[in-house]
From TrEMBL:
<dbReference type="InterPro" id="IPR019787">
    <property type="entry name" value="Znf_PHD-finger"/>
</dbReference>
<keyword id="KW-0805">Transcription regulation</keyword>
<keyword id="KW-0341">Growth regulation</keyword>
<dbReference type="InterPro" id="IPR001965">
    <property type="entry name" value="Znf_PHD"/>
</dbReference>
<dbReference type="InterPro" id="IPR028651">
    <property type="entry name" value="ING_fam"/>
</dbReference>
<comment type="subunit">
    <text>Component of an histone acetyltransferase complex. Interacts with H3K4me3 and to a lesser extent with H3K4me2.</text>
</comment>
<dbReference type="InterPro" id="IPR024610">
    <property type="entry name" value="ING_N_histone-binding"/>
</dbReference>
<keyword id="KW-0479">Metal-binding</keyword>
<dbReference type="InterPro" id="IPR011011">
    <property type="entry name" value="Znf_FYVE_PHD"/>
</dbReference>
<comment type="function">
    <text>Component of an histone acetyltransferase complex.</text>
</comment>
<feature type="region of interest" description="Disordered">
    <location>
        <begin position="115"/>
        <end position="159"/>
    </location>
</feature>
<dbReference type="InterPro" id="IPR036543">
    <property type="entry name" value="Guanylate-bd_C_sf"/>
</dbReference>
<dbReference type="InterPro" id="IPR019786">
    <property type="entry name" value="Zinc_finger_PHD-type_CS"/>
</dbReference>
<keyword id="KW-0539">Nucleus</keyword>
<comment type="similarity">
    <text>Belongs to the ING family.</text>
</comment>
<dbReference type="InterPro" id="IPR013083">
    <property type="entry name" value="Znf_RING/FYVE/PHD"/>
</dbReference>
<keyword id="KW-0862">Zinc</keyword>
Length: 243
């Protein structure tokens, strides 16, 4: 496409000079035509007066079929027609020249639009998929299912949840907020205040305000052994023990 732009730009830069030459030639032809038409009008007027005087004097038979202009006058008229035709031809050439550049520009804009459309389609096709919501939760009522057996969980489909966990960990290894599409009716959890995804762990404090946490957000890689408390609840327990 860049080659087409360079070639089109080079042709476009030469266009004004070409048009200027054609217009200059048309002006010269127009001056010549005006001069020939003036001379022909004078010649014809003179010949008409001569014919009138000849008819009056009886030297010319008043038969209109035999009266005609001289060959010189007829040649001037034919020459005027040729010049006019040449002017028209130059005007058509100038028009076609401009029109061809407009068509080239239209072609470039069409190709450019098609390339942009293909690029958008390719970007959409190769863009990473959003992390799916693989876990099924009914909200805060799941706190009653705590315990070592039910404290960690995956989504309903193991393969989907595993893929989700890998994608979530790779995209958010430090536990920062993820740009996930959130259903306004879907409850949010964890320190990141996002919906459930991947593998999660429940805090063993029954009064925990958050309850469920993503492994990556609390720096967990494996299922914790024994009781596990989230950072806020762990800090609260330590303050109580220190009293």
């Amino acid at each position: 496409m860049s080659f087409f732009i360079d070639e089109f730009q080079a042709d476009l830069e030469a266009l004004p000079n070409i048009l200027q030459k054609k217009y200059a030639l048309m002006r010269d032809l127009d001056k010549s035509l005006q001069e020939i038409v003036r001379q022909n009008e004078q010649r014809c007027d003179q010949e008409i007066e001569d014919i009138k005087r000849g008819v009056t004097a009886g030297n010319i038979t008043p038969d209109t079929s035999l009266i005609r202009f001289s060959d010189e006058a007829l040649d001037e008229q034919k020459h005027s027609i040729r010049i006019a035709d040449e002017k028209v031809a130059l005007a058509i050439q100038a028009y076609d020249l401009v029109d061809s550049h407009i068509q080239q520009l239209d072609q470039y804009l069409k190709k450019s639009g098609e390339e942009l459309r293909r690029e958008r389609e390719n970007m959409a096709a190769t863009a990473p998929s959003q992390i799916p919501d693989g876990t099924t939760k009914s909200g805060k009522s799941e706190s009653g299912r705590r315990g070592r057996k039910n404290r960690t969980r995956l989504g309903t489909a193991a393969a989907s949840a595993a893929a989700t966990e890998v994608a979530a960990t790779a995209a958010n290894p430090t536990g920062m907020e993820l740009d996930l599409p959130v259903d306004p009716n879907e409850p949010t959890y964890c320190l990141c205040n996002q919906v459930s995804y991947g593998e999660m762990v429940a805090c063993d404090n029954p009064d925990c305000k958050i309850e469920w946490f993503h492994f990556g957000c609390v720096d967990l890689k494996d299922q914790p052994k024994g009781k596990w408390y989230c950072p806020d609840c762990a800090a609260l327990r330590n303050r109580r023990k220190g009293r």
